[in-house]
Structure formats: structure tokens, C-alpha cells
Amino acid sequence: MSTPAEGSDPEQTRRNIQQTRAELGETVAALTAKTDVKTRARTKATTAVGGLRQRVTQAGQSAKTTARQLAQTMSQKASQRAKPVAQKAQQATTAIHDSARAGAQATGKAESALITSARAAITKIGSSVRTKPVPVLAVAGTAATLVVIASRRRWSR
């Protein structure tokens, strides 16, 4: 027991006991948490699932960004490659019209020769497009990519 010489009063003793009980309660709670395997496993699983969801979301966003960039690049390349083809087609059309006008004014043999040369020019243009189908394929690829992106957007809604 304490003596009055030590300077402790009953109120101080009660506070010390309450403080010790609180510390003991915290210690017991910590030990209980460490021994509760089920709860710890659930916590780890929840954390892992959250991390996976975050990674999947980031991967999806990254894929969308990459698809948009690829579609834009393909569109630009297709446009760049289609311009010279369109110019050649315009030049060939002009040449054919000019040939046809000249052919209408010429005699029978000259008219026949001009028609033959116009046909040859058309054949040459057709074979040129067949031998270099890259612009057509690029446009088709861009269109297919845009269709895939649009359909994915509809499905994700």
C-alpha cells in the first residue's frame, strides 16, 4: 500500500489503473488482430483485387490511347498516299478528255489512234493502282480500325 509520504492519492491511483487497462486493451486488440487469419486474408485479397482493377483500368486506357493514335497515324498516311494517286487520276482524266476532243476533230485513223492511246492510258492507270494498292489498303485499314473503336465504345456503354 502506498503511504502518504510517497505523495500518491486515491484519485491518481485510479487514473493509473484506467491508463493501464486502456494500454492492456490495445495490446489485446493488436494480438487478436494478428491471430485473426481470416480477416488478414480478406484484407490481403481486397488489396490485391483493388490493385488488379487499377492495373486493368490503366491497361484499358493505354490501349484506347494507342488505338486512337494508330488510327490517326493511319488516316494521315492514307491521306498522304492518296493525294498523288488522285493527282495522277486527274491528270489522266484531263489527258483522256483532251485526247477525246482531239480525236473527235481528227480523221478516222487519227481518231482510232487517239482512242487506242486513251485506252492504253486507262489500262496503265489501272495497272498502276493494282501494282501499288497501299493507299487503298491504308484507307481500308483505317476504316476497319475506326469501326473497331466505335463498336468497342458502344459495347462499353
From TrEMBL:
InterPro entries: DUF3618 (IPR022062). Residues 1-20 are annotated as: Disordered. This is ElaB/YqjD/DUF883 family membrane-anchored ribosome-binding protein. It comes from Micromonospora jinlongensis.
